[in-house]
Amino acid sequence: MIFEKGIEKTLATYEQWWAGDLNRPIMPIVITGLESTRKPPEHRYEGMNSFGNPKITPEELIDGVDYEFSCMEFIGDAYPFLNNDHCGAGAMAAFLGADVKLAAGSIWFFPKAELPIEELHLEYDKDNFWFRRTKDVMAEAKHKWGDSVVIGMPDLGGVMDILATFRGTENLLFDLYDSPKEVLRLVGDVEALWHRYYAELSEYVTPGLHTDWSGILSSKRSYMTQSDFSYMLSAEMFDKFAFDELRNTCEFLDRGCYHLDGLGQIPFLDRLMGIKGMDLIQWVPGDGTPATQDWFDLYCKILDAGKHLQIMYDTDHQTLSKLIEHYNSGRNIARMVSRYPASMREKAIEILSRFGILGLEGAQKNN
C-alpha cells in the first residue's frame, strides 16, 4: 500500500481535530485501482460474501484484504483500516443467536422464532459462531499488520435496532404501548450486552487506535452509536425508551458519536446534543430524501452547539465550502472517506489542495 503520511502523523492530526485545534476539515481520500506489487491471493476479498463463507479462513480473508490495500494509496487524512463492515450492520444480533442470511452481497439477520416479549431473553454466548469468527478475523488482522493498519470495530447496531430484529419492528412498536416494562427490561439487557461485546472486541484493537465504519480515528474509545428505530418514535417515547441507553453508552465510551438517520430523528437533535460525552453528530437524510438537499442550517446548529460534525453526502463539496465560508474555518468538520480511481488522482489532489489539507508529501512526490 502507499501510505506516506503514516499512522503516527495521521493520528496526531485527528487528535488535533478532536481538540478543536485543527483549522481545517478532516478529508480522507483513497485512490483505488493501482497496480499491485504482490501476487493476487487465491481468495479475493468480497466483503460480506467472504466473511459469511466459513470455508474461507480468517487468514485467507485478511490476506484478501491485504491485497486490496496493495492496490490503494491513502492521501489527505485517509489511512488503511479494516472496516469490519463485512460483519453486517447490527452484527450483535447474530452474536445473540439471530439467523444469518446472505443475499446479493448483504447480510441480513432474522429471529429463529418470534417469541412473545415476556418470553424473550437475550444472553451472552462466548461460543456463538459469528462472534468467534469476528474475533478470529480481528485477531488475524492484528497479527498480520500490527499497528500499521487500524482495526475498526464491527457495526454492533443500536440497542433498539437489535431488539427490533428479534421482535420485529411492528411488534416492537405495539410493545411500547402494551408491554412497556418488558421493553425496558430488554433495553437494559441489550445495553449491558452491548457494553460487554464492545469491551471484549476492543481487546483485538491496537491500543490507542480506535475507529468504526465512520472512519473517524481516535486515540480514545469512540463509536458511532445509533437508534434507527427511533425514527418512528414520538419525543416522549424517545425519552422513555432510547435516551437513557444512549446517555449511558456515551458515559461508557470516551468519545460518543451519533448516526442521526432520517427526518424523523431531527426532533431529537437537541436532546442528543445535550448528552455529556456526545461529541459528534453524523447526519444522514435517510431513504426517500434527496442526498443533494441543502442541510446547511442543520449543520450549523450542530457546530454552533460545540459538537463535531461528519458530513456523508455533499455533491462537489458545496456544503463544506459554504460552511467554511460561513465560519471562516473548517474546524470540527469531517467528511466521510472518498474514493477516486487512479485515473482521477489529479482531481483528488486538487480537492485536498483546495481545502488546505497538509500531509501531501507522498502525493506531491508522486505527481
Structure description:
With 367 residues, the protein is an alpha/beta fold. The chain has a domain of 117 residues: Rossmann fold (3-Layer(aba) Sandwich). It contains 14 helices and twelve strands. Strands 7-8-9-10-11 form a five-stranded parallel β-sheet. It has a three-stranded mixed β-sheet with strand order 2-1-12, with helices on one face. Strands 3-6 form a two-stranded parallel ribbon. Helix 3 packs across helix 5, helix 6 packs across helix 7 and helix 8 packs parallel to helix 9. It is globular.
- Strand neighbour order, sheet with most strands: 7-8-9-10-11
Q: How many H/I helical runs?
A: 14
**What is the averaged pLDDT score?**
94
Tell me the structural class: alpha/beta
Q: Architecture of the domain at 220-336, according to CATH?
A: 3-Layer(aba) Sandwich
Assign a percent range to the helix content: 40-55%
Strand element count: 12
Along the chain, the helix and strand elements come as: HEHHEEHEEHEHHHEHEHEHEHEEHH
Strand percentage = 5-15%
Task: Find the CATH topology of the domain at 220-336.
Answer: Rossmann fold
Main beta sheet: strand number and arrangement? Answer: 5 strands, parallel
CATH class category name of the domain at 220-336: Alpha Beta
Query: Whole-Å distance between the termini?
Result: 17 Å
Q: What is the 3D form? A: globular
Q: Output the radius of gyration.
A: 21 Å
Defining key terms:
Rossmann fold; disordered C terminus; alpha/beta; five-stranded parallel beta sheet; 14% strand; 12 strands; 41% helix; 367 residues
